[in-house]
Amino acid sequence: xxxxxLFDFDGTISYRYQAAxxxxxxxxxxxxxxxxxxxxxxxxILQRCLLWDQYGTINKRxxxxxxxxxxxxxxxxxxxxxxxxxxxxxxxxxxxxxxEVLERLKENxxxxxxxxxxxxxQMTKIxxxxxxxxxxxxxxxxxxxxxxxxxxxxxxxxxxxxxxPEEVVFVGDTxxxxxxxxxxxxxxxxxxxxxxxxxxxxxxxxxxxxxxxxKYLWEIREKGx
Length: 225
Fold this sequence. Notes:
By secondary structure, the protein is of the alpha/beta class.
């Protein structure tokens, strides 16, 4: 019987793609103010940034190096890197329906969160959504000492819940960290593929939004799993 749910944050609780899109709109104008008057040029560079960035998943130094090489040879990478992380939290969005669904799920499940990244940055984003009190436990990889897909961070969260791994679902959007780590640690994985379907040869549950997630959890609860 599933008794607990652990969530990933970026791209699962937060709408990372929308946040990255809005951030790049603002960020590129800080690099090149002329883009305010040249919307097509800005959109061209923005869309290329999103591809380099893999929609918010890649270290921003990589994107800045690409920007410098292709568009802005005088770009100060370190200054722009700091600027990004000073302002990224201002562009955070939660996934549609997540807050309402979490409130209903709390009636039947313990709800926790595991997120990879620097503690200050991750907590600032979580607080920007007003969700810092929605999860227990709440583990950030930097503070914990290891990151997903390391089994230790999953098992520590499960232990904090007072549950067994097979009693806990892990919901995440990144297969190579969230899903692989959950499987290795013995949790029940659900691959969150917002607005798309993932392709895998493994028999892994997939959901594309929070309505579908809630329905799936209700179905397995009804079956007594």
